[in-house]
């Protein structure tokens, strides 16, 4: 579903160039759960942003569903993201001046056949918190609003940057069960960055990032 | 070192009152590592903010080193925090317009005998990242700048809100070893909120928050 071909991403910083991704070649199988693992600072978020069309590579190609994202205009890229990709950000990226419900609504209302905000909030265990502003929510609750916002629009591709990082084990298990249901029943292709070994073990494929490239690919026995 | 006596904290929200802490009574032993655990939304961050004097209880007393924080003026509270408490925030709270080095410096420069920013950054594995702005750092790197900022001022009391939440296992282990060194060699009293069972197991005392009160206190065999 997603193919990365010799993708590089370099950040210029004054006189120095920070070469984060140095030729990543990998593929994300359709309808599967793929985990991306690697040390802090290894480039996982950078890679996810390229897959989701939030950033452009310095070189190489990012091909999603047959479309080379590099060839799309900014406007086409925005359209692609809005309709086909759900993104759970590492730092949630909620709008501070909108309630939880409104944060979910802004993502969903542009998409036909979306879940209602209250349905999405309920799925992540946040019944009754729809009127709280982000500043009136705990860290793990903000993370879950970010998840609700991403799933409400029923995307084909769900990109999750450490979606259970702020959650206790019990709540995290429920969120993972929700993601697995989306994958198994609705065929959603899921890519998730995780630092947790048990979570990576649930994935069909695990990509390990190290020194700017995919160091290893591991596929689990269940397809 | 810290005593909480029947502490309550309620947040008014329109017509409804959110009663988060409902009579917390507990103590944080001097020179020990105390972990606070509990579900997402159970009130851990709220409790830590009260201990650190960042927030005031609705009722009850927070006594640190013999001083009832409730009796201090805002100005005295600010002085107490600045000199005696190091705080690692759940969402890092870095200043976006200052570099990593400057973020650490602002906390340390007001305190005599502080570590230099570069020393602190080196201790958390961020050698060479001093010139990056927060927006040019990964999530786990931002978290570590937040830690460097808290420890640079050599506080008596170090309050850490999920200090390894964004870190891979290896980096997290190094940060915990650093915290344990501060505790064992410098006698720093540490309170850390964590969702991780192995991390809580390293603490001398574990406080479990549930339904707004301390449901259980567990002390480990090593004092
Ligand atoms: N705008 C930027 N300018 C310079 N360097 C950057 C920029 N953005 C990211 N970096 C660097 O790129 C590297 C990879 O960052 P990235 O956020 O992708 O890491 P990560 O694997 O997601 O880490 P973590 O697990 O800590 O979230 C880091 O070393 C970071 O400092
Ligand atoms: N300003 C506020 N107004 C209303 N409710 C609030 C406010 N701040 C926090 N809350 C509520 O208080 C409860 C506890 O929040 P807190 O941040 O202390 O939880 P936590 O235990 O740290 O959770 P997490 O593990 O998710 O970080 C949550 O249910 C939250 O929605
Ligand atoms: Mg990241
Ligand atoms: Mg919290």
Low-confidence stretches of chain A: none
Tell me the overall shape of chain A: globular
* Largest sheet, spatial ordering of strands of chain A: 6-7-8-3-9-10
List of distinct ligands in this structure = adenosine-5'-triphosphate, magnesium ion
In helices, the fraction of residues of chain A equals 25-40%
The percent range for strand residues of chain A is 25-35%
Return the average pLDDT of chain A rounded to an integer. 94
The largest pleated sheet of chain A is described as: 6 strands, mixed
Number of H/I helices of chain A: 7
Largest interface chains and counts: A-B, 33 and 33 residues
Structural class by helix and strand composition of chain A: alpha/beta
C-alpha Rg of chain A (nearest Å): 17 Å
Order of helices and strands of chain A: EEEHEEHEHHHEHEHEE
Query: N-to-C terminal Cα separation of chain A, in Å?
Result: 15 Å
* Multimeric status of the protein: homodimer
């Amino acid at each position: 579903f997603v193919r990365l071909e010799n993708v590089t991403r370099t950040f210029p910083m004054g006189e120095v160039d920070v070469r984060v991704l140095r030729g990543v070649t990998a593929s994300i199988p359709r309808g599967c759960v793929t985990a991306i693992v690697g040390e802090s600072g290894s480039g996982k978020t950078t890679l996810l942003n390229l897959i989701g069309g939030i950033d452009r590579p310095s070189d190489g190609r990012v091909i999603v569903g047959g479309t080379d994202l590099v060839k799309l205009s900014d406007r086409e890229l925005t359209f692609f993201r809005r309709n086909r990709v759900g993104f759970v950000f590492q730092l949630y990226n909620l709008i501070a001046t909108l309630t939880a419900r409104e944060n979910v609504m802004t993502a969903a209302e542009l998409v036909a056949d979306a879940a209602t905000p209250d349905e999405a909030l309920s799925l992540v265990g946040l019944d009754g918190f729809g009127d709280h502003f982000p500043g009136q929510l705990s860290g793990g609750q903000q993370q879950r609003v970010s998840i609700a916002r991403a799933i409400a629009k029923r995307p084909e591709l769900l990109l999750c940057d450490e979606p259970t990082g702020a959650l206790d084990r019990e709540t995290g298990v429920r969120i993972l069960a929700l993601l697995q249901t989306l994958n198994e029943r609705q065929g959603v292709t899921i890519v998730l960055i995780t630092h947790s070994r048990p979570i990576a073990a649930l994935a069909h494929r695990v990509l390990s990032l190290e020194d700017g490239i995919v160091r290893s690919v591991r596929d689990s026995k269940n397809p």
